[in-house]
């Protein structure tokens, strides 16, 4: 944002209110272009369609969390979902507060990171090339954690395979939606097999 | 763009994001039993979604140009090995990132 000529309060407020990584970067491009509110909405729905899958997976986990549920759903970004889904919450801890604080801390780190970047972006001189790999490393680790927890890996392999195939066919900018449909179709077809064998613990 | 137009644009993005997050919870409210098919999806989707997220992170890696995805591959192998060995999430993430940064800054 700094490079694009925006004052620091843009990234600060956007990270606070939107709180969804990839779409915030796209928003910067939208703000620099012509005014197309409907297109902005359509683009957002497309990029963030994966949240639908997160919601379906979290229907049970977020049940009975009371007033915190609203914030838990609002703050359900990739990271909150991944951590809250895989975390093994100790019995003696109130799980709704655990989920709440994971989301809140994610939110705070995200906002402070965006704000600091907006203020001090031009002062950073050490070479940060490759730092973005932290996201890849995190999702690889979460993928592995899930892999070690489950008995059968059909769904995990299907997710990787379908996504890679769609990436090759549709290219990096438009593979997510076809990949989601592909995963949905494949898992629906495999329902008989997966439910009989008991995919979960 | 005027400030008003900027606010509307950002508002649309907020609305779209909130919509995708709340929709499943609105369609399948806690008070009513969730259809078995949706329950099934809730159980099997996460593994597939984590795979999708990994691929998402690597989507701009080109295996035909530049360093051909070799630093990414090496760093991921490093993350997997470190995680199998120690199984400390933060250590694996930090170690993998440092490994990747060293690779792209000094080796490739």
Q: What fraction of residues of chain B sit in β-strands?
A: under 5%
DSSP strand tally of chain A: 0
Q: What are the segments of chain B in which pLDDT stays under 50 over at least 5 consecutive residues? A: none
Please provide the ordered H/E string of secondary-structure elements of chain B: HHHH
**Principal-axes shape call of chain A:** globular
Work out the helicity level of chain A. 55-70%
Largest sheet data of chain A: none
Total count of helical runs of at least 4 residues of chain B: 4
Globally, the shape of chain B reads extended
Number of E strands of chain B: 0
Q: Which series of helices and strands of chain A comes N to C?
A: HHHHHHHHHHH
Features:
heterodimer; A: 201 residues; mainly alpha; B: mainly alpha
List the helices and strands and how they pair.
The complex is a heterodimer of chains A (201) and B (108).
Chain A: H1 9-17, H2 21-32, H3 37-47, H4 50-58, H5 68-74, H6 78-86, H7 95-120, H8 133-149, H9 154-170, H10 176-189, H11 191-197
Helix pairs in contact in A: 1-7, 5-7, 6-7, 9-10
Chain B: H1 3-27, H2 36-57, H3 70-86, H4 89-107
Protein model, in words:
The complex is a heterodimer of chains A (201) and B (108). Helices cover 69% and strands 0% of the residues of chain A. Chain A contains eleven helices and no strands. Chain A starts with 8 loop residues before the first helix and ends with a helix. Chain A is globular and about 55 Å long. Chain B is an all-alpha fold and 108 residues long. Chain B has a domain at 60-108. Helix content of chain B is 77%, strand content 0%. Chain B has helices spanning 3-27, 36-57, 70-86, 89-107. Chains A and B meet through helix 1, helix 2, helix 3, helix 4 and helix 5 of A and helix 1, helix 2, helix 3 and helix 4 of B.
